[in-house]
Amino acid sequence: MLPDRAADGRIPDAGTAAICRTLQRTSTGELTTLPTKTRASERRIALPARCVQSLKLHHEQQAARA
Fold first, then answer.
1. Which of 25, 8, 30 has the alpha carbon at shortest distance from 17?
2. Contacting residues for 53 by C-beta, under 8 A, at least 6 apart
3. Which residue intervals of 1-66 are DSSP H helices?
4. Is 17 exposed, middle or buried (0-12, 13-18, 19+ CB in 10 A)?
5. Which pLDDT does position 61 carry in this prediction?
6. What pLDDT digit, counting tens, does each position of 1-54 carry?
7. Nearest to 22 by CA among 11, 31, 13
8. What region does 29 belong to: left with phi over 0, alpha with psi -120 to 50, or beta?
9. CB-CB contact of 25 with 31 (8 Å)
């Protein structure tokens, strides 16, 4: 099982993102998220430092608006 993560899949302050959902188009053309097909499909990926910095800034801006 993957460690606790934020709602968006990030592992806080770890510089990684958890892959635990898939994106699928429905018959009406809309997009929806679903769990991965197997537990083996769940994984963690490293995020580049630039991406981590951008995500932190984005979350700070969202918190300031709330």
1. 8
2. none
3. 49-65
4. buried
5. 92
6. 444 556 555 555 678 888 889 999 999 999 999 999 998 888 888 999 899 889
7. 31
8. left
9. yes
Segment holding 33, helix H or strand E:
strand 31-35
Residue 15's Cβ-count burial label (10 Å; 0-12, 13-18, 19+) is middle
Q: Edge-to-edge, what's the strand order for the sheet holding 10-11?
A: 10-11, 16-19, 43-46
> Amino acid identity, residue 18?
A
Q: What is the pLDDT of residues 39-50, one digit of tens each?
A: 888 888 899 989
